[in-house]
Amino acid sequence: MAPKSAVKAVRGMRDLLPAEFGPWYFAEGLAREVATRFGYQEIRTPILEPIEIAERGAGESSDIVRKEMYRFQDLGDRWVVLRPEGTAPAVRAYFEGGLNQAAQPARLFMLAPMFRYDRPGKGRYRQHQQFSLEAIGDASPALDAEVIEVAHTWYVELGLKQISLHINSIGDPKCRPAYRDALLAYFRPLRDRLSADSQRRLEQNPLRILDSKEDAALREGAPRIADYLCAECRMAFAAVQDLLDSAGIEYQLDPYLVRGLDYYTRTTFEFRHESLGGAQNAIGGGGRYDGLAAELGYAETPGVGFGLGVDRTLEVLAAEGIQVESPPAAELLVLPADPELEAAAAAIARKAREALPTAVDYSDRSLRAKMRAAGKSGARWAAIFNAAEAARRVVQLRDLASGDQREVGWDDLPRAIGE
Ligand code: HAM
Fold this sequence. Notes:
Helix content: 25-40%
Bound molecules: histidyl-adenosine monophosphate
Number of strands: 16
Number of helices: 15
Distance between the termini: 56 Å
């Protein structure tokens, strides 16, 4: 019979293996710790959402909805989507879970996978992990500064040095139409020189042309949003900057930072890292989304938050030479001389686990083969025993690095290895 072809992971998806977990535990543990320190609480929303969460959330003109959705019909013929981002689901959960009735704002965070059918490449995966955080139910610009400070604190405490923060305000539905018109008037005569993507954006959402790396040269000279902001938006943006200044957080004003999601109003921001070139240099981003709740069919409710890419952040951590050890496999291996001794082996392991991570070699290989495997495993100790020693409740405790060996009673094992 012909051998069956090996089943492989879906393209653009990847496994995380034990040796990679050190940085993940570090980054996600610190994310929980920092978010909690600022009074944010963890939520988990389903991976599967109704398709409207993306269409009315990220928006019809976003790349996410136009070409990156993992969407399909379930067995009940409902159109569903693998969650491409966390903000619209958080807003939905805020209302469905009654958090809108509790103290405001709701301060929420998530550590969760997001799915985008993007072209896989370095720093770009079809499943990526985000540390996302949202403050929902309060319009104060102080919250814009607060969420930026949470993100900044996480990056700094991870040890990153080469990050930069870019901020902008893209106005609100009152002042943005005039800016949109000014952009149309500027770009229409340049239409033939724009990329195909930007030509399409011209009528749908001309602000997104500013985002285009391909058309960066053409945008120089384009009208700037700062000249079109209404008084409220201008004051809010000034307040965000004042608060960042007093927090000692450096930033650059970037009049062309509009971001790829349709729901933003007022503040938008992005964290970038020097080591990442091109379009993938954003390690995190966010902004205010005061119109999103109404788009999803709920009462108008302000919100602000961020999504930080954990995969990319770990890549830049490595690029800055910051290494984090992964948790060890067992540090003590129990090696019964004969497979029949499994109950005694389990009892010895139970005792040893009071002091160190411990595993048992239950295979039926020879004791010599077990010793060889233990030597290669990276464990520090082996506890070797035969039937006679089991009857006396003792093991030969071997230091695998030095080769020293001595007899130790089961009850003394935690103390002997715990020193
Ligand atoms: P986003 O900019 O689409 O924002 O994604 C946030 C971050 O996720 C990016 O800066 C990037 O680091 C990472 N990321 C995005 N796509 C990929 C990918 N294909 N592979 C690896 N990493 C990726 C949002 O998702 C908004 N929900 C953020 C937000 C929260 N705004 C307000 N609240």
